[in-house]
């Protein structure tokens, strides 16, 4: 499972534990591309963001860092293994969405995103997507 930047905002915006939801759907390995981390860090520092959006970015970043730290100490958290993927950008990904599509195709991975344009591109490429449904749970779409 590859996680897009906006998916990491879900916990702060809607209070949904995306890692528990992914586990419920059967996903146990989570890949966070370096491009996504870079976007999340940029969102946290953007001065013109509204308070709620900035808070959601901070929550997503902190949650991800907590899970990574917990993984290093306990090797397991909520059944998920998180891999921070680097080096994919050099393979032709000119933007984060393209990087995610290339990585998903290469790994045969599904993608968690609420970005409609990205979801459409992924679907066209035959890649499974997971998205927030009803502001309360994640749902898979093949």
What is the secondary structure topology, with strand pairs?
Blueprint: E1 2-3, H1 10-14, H2 18-24, E2 29-33, H3 34-45, H4 51-74, E3 81-85, H5 96-107, E4 111-112, H6 116-124, E5 129-133, E6 137-141
Parallel strand pairs: 1-4, 2-3, 4-5
Antiparallel strand pairs: 5-6
Helix pairs in contact: 3-4
Number of domains: 1
CATH superfamily: 5'-nuclease
Largest sheet: 4 strands, mixed
Annotated CATH topology: Rossmann fold
Distance between the termini: 13 Å
Q: Could you name the CATH class?
A: Alpha Beta
Described by the principal axes of the CA atoms, the overall outline is globular
Question: What is the strand content?
Answer: 15-25%
SSE pattern, N- to C-terminal: EHHEHHEHEHEE
Unreliable runs: 73-80, 86-92
Mean pLDDT: 81
| Secondary structure: number of strands | 6
Q: What does this 3D model show about the protein?
A:
The protein is α/β, with parallel strands linked by helices and 142 residues long. It has one domain (2-141): 5'-nuclease (Rossmann fold). The chain has six helices and six strands, in the order E-H-H-E-H-H-E-H-E-H-E-E. It has helices at residues 10-14, 18-24, 34-45, 51-74, 96-107, 116-124, and strands at 2-3, 29-33, 81-85, 111-112, 129-133, 137-141. The strands form two sheets. The protein has a four-stranded mixed β-sheet, sandwiched between helices. The protein has a two-stranded parallel sheet with strand order 2-3. Helix 6 (116-124) links the parallel strand 4 (111-112) and strand 5 (129-133). Helix 3 packs across helix 4 (51-74). It is globular.
């Amino acid at each position: 499972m590859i996680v897009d930047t906006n998916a990491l905002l879900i916990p702060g915006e809607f209070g949904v534990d995306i890692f528990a939801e992914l586990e419920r759907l059967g996903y146990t390995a989570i890949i966070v591309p370096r491009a996504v981390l870079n976007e999340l860090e940029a969102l946290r520092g953007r001065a013109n963001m509204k308070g709620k959006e900035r808070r959601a970015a901070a929550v997503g970043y902190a949650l991800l860092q907590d899970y990574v730290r917990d993984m290093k100490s306990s090797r397991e958290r909520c059944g998920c293994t998180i891999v921070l993927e680097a080096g994919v950008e050099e393979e032709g990904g000119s933007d984060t969405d393209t990087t995610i599509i290339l990585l998903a195709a290469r790994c045969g991975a599904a993608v968690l995103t609420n970005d409609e344009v990205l979801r459409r591109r992924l679907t066209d490429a035959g890649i499974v997507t997971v998205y927030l449904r009803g502001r309360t749970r994640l749902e898979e779409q093949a």
